[in-house]
Write a structure and sequence with these properties.
Number of strands: 13
Distance between the termini: 21 Å
Shape: elongated
Number of helices: 6
Structural class: alpha+beta
Helix content: 10-25%
Strand content: over 45%
Number of domains: 2
Largest sheet: 6 strands, antiparallel
Length: about 250
């Protein structure tokens, strides 16, 4: 019964899911009355999260440590924690799903807000450029190839940019670009400048940015194979995290 209630609550947190199953384990069972759950396990396939509604996640497998929840709130469709919750999480993302997401208006809106500079360009000149049409390819050896168009808004010209790089996880929270190579209109960018840009980017790609929202996450494993990205994460969620925001039940 509680498994079904929890599954219904989780479905309200996503746009859609092709499959979603929840199992709650308790020994002894009377602990449930006090909101104590020894372990909750979630398996979801083909899930679209509300935070990124255009992104399909091929698979999510989650197993929690002991969790203290408000059972009354859970029965009302709310997830309310009485104490921080910890879980091991595995995500699998497929290249086709990521590339479909990259064509979404949400991603283009992000690209439109990016601030970047061209060597020697004035601020007025920099604003004439925009990025569009990103595509991502998974390569062997945990490497990626990103292709994006640099659009000149004044001359109505498009310059293809190709970035190929490996990715390494540093201290469990930061992604570092490894041996990056950048080509602009088929011409290799100087390696010293590429490394400098890569170092600046790696400082931005940190999961510590989520800690202000009550979510601490650390990457335990990261691999790319067969056009699929596989990530294992440890996460700790605080009771006041906005990620627990209650969403209204769908209309009947």
């Amino acid at each position: 019964m509680l498994d079904s209630v929890a599954a219904d609550v989780l479905r309200r947190q996503v746009v859609s899911a092709e499959a979603l199953a929840v199992r709650i384990d308790n020994v002894p069972n009377y602990q449930i009355v006090n909101g104590r759950i020894d372990q909750a396990r979630v398996a979801a396939r083909g899930i679209y999260p509300r935070q990124l509604p255009g992104l399909r996640i091929a698979a999510i497998d989650l197993a929690t440590d002991p969790v203290a929840v408000d059972l009354g709130a859970l029965r009302q469709g709310q997830i309310t924690l009485d104490a921080p919750a910890q879980a091991a999480l595995r995500l699998r993302l497929q290249a086709d799903d990521i590339n479909e997401f990259l064509t979404s208006p949400q991603v283009q809106a992000w690209l439109d807000t990016l601030q970047f500079s061209l060597p020697g360009a004035s601020e007025r000149v920099q604003r004439r450029y925009g990025l569009a049409n990103p595509t991502l390819e998974f390569l062997d050896g945990d490497r990626f190839r990103l292709v994006v168009d640099l659009e000149d808004q004044v001359l109505a010209d498009t310059i293809p940019i190709v970035l190929e790089t490996g990715v390494r996880v540093v201290n469990g929270h930061r992604f570092q670009l490894v041996q990056p190579r950048l080509e602009i209109e088929g011409v290799a960018f100087p390696s010293e400048l590429v490394l400098s840009l890569a170092e600046g980017a790696s400082q931005e790609f940190s999961l510590r940015r989520l800690e202000d929202q009550g979510l601490t996450a650390r990457i335990l494993a990261f691999s790319v194979r067969d056009n699929e990205l596989d990530i294992a994460i440890f996460a700790r969620l605080e009771p006041d995290s906005p990620f627990l925001q209650t969403l209204p039940a769908p209309p009947p």
